[in-house]
Amino acid sequence: MNVSVFGIGYVGLVQGAALAEVGHSVMCVDVDAAKVQALIEGTLPIYEPGLKTLVRENYQSGRLQFGTDLAAAVRHGDVQLIAVGTPPDEDGSADLQYVLNVAETIAQHMDRYQVIVDKSTVPVGTGDVVRARIAEVLAGNGRSDLTFDVISNPEFLKEGCAVDDCMRPDRIIIGTDSAHAEEVMRELYEPFNRNREKIIVMDIRSAELTKYAANCMLATKISFMNEMATLSEKLGADIEMVRHGIGSDPRIGYQFIYPGVGYGGSCFPKDVKALIHAATAVDIDARVLKAVEARNNEQKTTLFSKIFEHFDGALQGKTFALWGLSFKPNTDDMREAPSRVLMEALWKAGARVQAFDPKAMEEAQRLYGEREDLTLAGTKEAALKNADALIIVTEWQTFRAPDFDLLARQLKQPLIFDGRNLFDPQRLGKRGFTYVSVGRQTWPHVVDGGMQ
Ligand code: NAD
Q1: What separation in angstroms does the CA of 41 have from each of 35, 66, 150, 213?
Q2: Is the CB of 152 under 6 A from ligand 1?
Q3: Checking CA distances to 95, which of 84, 301, 322, 377 falls within 20 to 30 Å?
Q4: Mean pLDDT of 338-352
């Protein structure tokens, strides 16, 4: 099938490459000419495991094309995928300007029946808005004879394993009111639907809400666990024990119940905000979601509070080694990353940061440029040199079993603030470290008047 993809971001690029991989002819277009040129020259705008090879092979085979000619893309595709951003507007609602721009472009240039697919995360009712905008432009051009269907097909890929998620999706949601468009979508996704039936067809509004509900449910799990972690600290419990205790209940499960430093990235924060806004617009007070957001904002400051407390507020002139800048492992994405909230608080308090991340160094450089209080270290070991403490923000695999002797030698004192609970507190205590983590007691800690 001929497919056009508008927006070469995380969703557009990965989904475009996945569709090309199974044999479709995919034209990906973007308004960012520099991004397109870089792709043509073989440079990817993002890091995703496995993506470079997938893109290169499919580009070389000719099944995957990149360009800026939006009109050519409209003519190319029998299916038009909209995969542009829907960032939060000032009031928290999803900004639909990019989606509607693409809708207008498609309407301007379409010359035959089209299936127009909304893959961007959009508020309930956007399908109707897109449909109306296209009809309006067609009418203005005297082309009301052209027919089309608008489909909601939300994307569920996870950054960090986006290629795998697109090649082996666990569900394919298709929101449509057209039997013909459903058939076109079934054909498009047939190669991904062999192992078992993954396609779930529903009405457009339910499909649009399914995406928000999924992200908000996951964000809720995280904020809930962070609240339990805060309670654990105050009540003398160990959140890791609690996590095991509740995860063993199959109704709860072990996935997505890790305490930490709060969720970040381009999706959860904006989608929680957007759903709160959408609820308010229909006179619903989204109490749960507001609490999820408030807990998360607070959680992003938790490591700083622990550091501030440990040093009695005397952070001026201190240097901190920071491991992990991306909002989660296996991505270079730093949008809404907890590391940013932490670094900015440390800088405000007069401290310096020596940071290392396996993939997000360029992104950090792009975001912060040259500044005296930030050193982007070449290795995780180099970041430690003469630092007053190590802070772990992102749980990259490479941070999980460090050389603790080297760590103790490089740091000014054996002190770790761990926002991801990577280590066993007692083991670190025995090695002479002071170890501050999330939802657990600081180790070594005082019990019955003595050190344990
Ligand atoms: P992104 O910001 O990485 O990429 C969007 C791209 O669209 C940019 O390159 C931008 O230049 C381009 N663009 C803007 N206007 C355009 C136009 N008129 N024509 C062509 N291109 C245009 O965004 P993303 O992270 O890929 O997210 C896209 C959508 O998918 C969002 O709604 C997001 O919520 C949703 N989503 C994202 C993820 C994720 O993990 N990033 C997962 C699922 C769903």
Answers
A1: 10, 11, 34, 39
A2: no
A3: 301
A4: 98
